[in-house]
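Table S2 (continued). Query chain:
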Amino acid sequence: MSSNPQPFRLAVVGAGPAGVYAAETLLRTQQVKDGELEVAIDLFDRFPAPFGLIRYGVAPDHPRIKGIITALHRILGRGDIRFLGDVEFGTDLTVEDLRTHYDAVIFATGALKDADLDVPGIELEGSFGAADFVAWYDGNPDYPRTWELDAEHVAVIGNGNVALDVARVLAKSADELLRTEIPANVYDGLKAASTTDVHVFGRRGPAQTKFSPLEARELAHPKGLQVVMDPRDLEQITEAEWETIRADKRTDQIVQTFVGWTEEQQRREAAGEAPTDAHGGPVSRRLHLHFWHRPVEVLGEDGAVTGMRFERTRLDADGRLEGTGEFVDYELGAVYRAVGYHGSELPGLPYDAARGVVVNRAGRVTEADGTVIPGVYANGWIKRGPVGLIGATKSDAIETITCLLEDIAAGTLAAAPEREADAILSVLDERGVQYTTWDGWMALDEHEKALGAAALDADGEPRARIKVVDREEMVRVSRDGAPLPSNA
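Corresponding output:
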């Protein structure tokens, strides 16, 4: 056992998967298990509730991803990680505060901004970032309660998971989404939406989508929805590419799903039959999948979106994307760009604006010249950029925690004997920060479940949860009767 009576105190900023897994990875190391290293971990988040991207960045009808919350909840519910929510880094606490009261700090703040799409007209009214829309329908308390949904024809630019989520939420009926935790204001907004046609555009072909086979198939599941394909997009696939497609089971399943839709669509057109949804019912909305389309310009009049111009693309002999010189215009009332995320600068930390990450080497935060800043680390998207899924975040955490342990072993880091467990709480109290706790989250969790139980979905069944959106209400529910945390 360590002779130092004080544990090694670690602050983690960001209570999403990257932050929770970083803390959990340290607690699971052999040094901690064997008692060679005693640790005390505080997990901070700007929201009153934990779980970060999983609560505020994943579509509500995506239960497999939402299920990650169960794993995160199990980790935080053990009690060996102290959660302190509704604490804004850079405002309520600074880098200097954290370095004063902790032996090390890990920043895991993610990437919440939309990446830019550099085409003329992107600034027009009716042109939106997908991340902002996701934040709205996920009930992010920092966003307005209303969203403009008066366009009948809407474009979603991108072929990744976020583009798929946005397209699905826009294309589904609001009543189907009542099975999820969407807040009342989101349901009301989607219920009143004028959207009839959602167009999803990708620069490459059907084989280069980021969808999973199940996600692709589920696109056609909503009642009243028809998936519309352009046969040219499949005809453009070369025989060499078909060989590559067939050699990869995941890709082959996705492309065969597209083939099935296209063939059924052509059969009905040839027979003069009216289109139906996947359940044989009438069609009221359409989801158009467009491949081989490179964005060229957002078109507009009087400062508002009226359409978008694309150039048809193809693969050259070396498999690289090139333009064909054929341009196509579409009449649209709104455009959502889903071309990636970009991390925000953190006050007091070196920042790579081009990549949207904290400057770091293998998780150790460095100055611009490469000099390591002792005791300061990064994990997740703010470390490596917004790429990869949960598995990559866990690998990231192993790398970052390995660096931290190496620094402890080398004597660069050590537990300072004078640190007090609750000193940070005194700082927050002195500054009037109404922070929330894990017990507070449990109270809010039960409150949201009770709201759901008192309401009914479209099938007349009680809803599992209704998410609280208002920040003051979240804090009030969280703090009523929640005891102060201890991390001695």
